[in-house]
Write a structure and sequence with these properties.
Phage_T4_Gp19, mainly beta, structural molecule activity, Pnp Oxidase, Chain A, about 150 residues, CHP02241, two-stranded antiparallel sheet, Phage tail protein
């Protein structure tokens, strides 16, 4: 059986941030290393219409697509060591930021792209640092929650 028929694994991926208008990646090596990526979902918003005299059901009509927040998790880096952290810090500290595009790429065993999702006009909505706990020897995780307009599969 050919290996191409098997579903890909979800643990080999990279995230690239496009901080300039030309679409070139400008980031440190730390900025592609994420523990997890979630939120590449479309959700159809609907409206309910009740028909007069018809009590057995309601009509549910599609309105528009909505994307959930993109959530990126990784071990924490100082803002001086990460352009992404600097971008978020500037957004929350100075309320000064520009929405950016980013690319999430699922990779195969040879580190070649299998699928690519381009996220359009993302901006930082939430930035969290995990709790510190002396009872556990865990890596400190930072979580970025980004709002975005839409994504495309390329």
């Amino acid at each position: 059986m050919a290996a191409a028929n098997y579903p890909p694994v979800g643990f080999h991926f990279k995230v690239e941030f496009l901080f300039d208008k030309k679409g070139t990646v400008q980031q440190t090596d730390n900025d592609i290393l994420f523990q997890s990526v979630s939120g590449l979902n479309f959700q159809m918003q609907t409206d309910t219409l009740r028909e007069g005299g018809e009590n057995r059901f309601e009509h549910v009509l599609p309105l528009r697509n909505k994307c959930t927040d993109l959530v990126l998790r990784r071990g924490i880096f100082k803002p001086a060591d990460s352009i992404v952290s600097q971008w978020c810090l500037d957004a929350f500290k100075n309320f000064s930021f520009a929405p950016i595009d980013l690319i999430v790429t699922l990779l195969n065993e040879q580190h070649q792209p299998l699928m690519t999702w381009k996220v359009h006009r993302a901006w930082p909505k939430n930035w969290k640092v995990a709790d510190f706990n002396a009872d556990k020897g865990e890596v400190v995780i930072e979580t970025f929650e980004l709002n975005y307009n839409y994504f495309s599969v390329e």
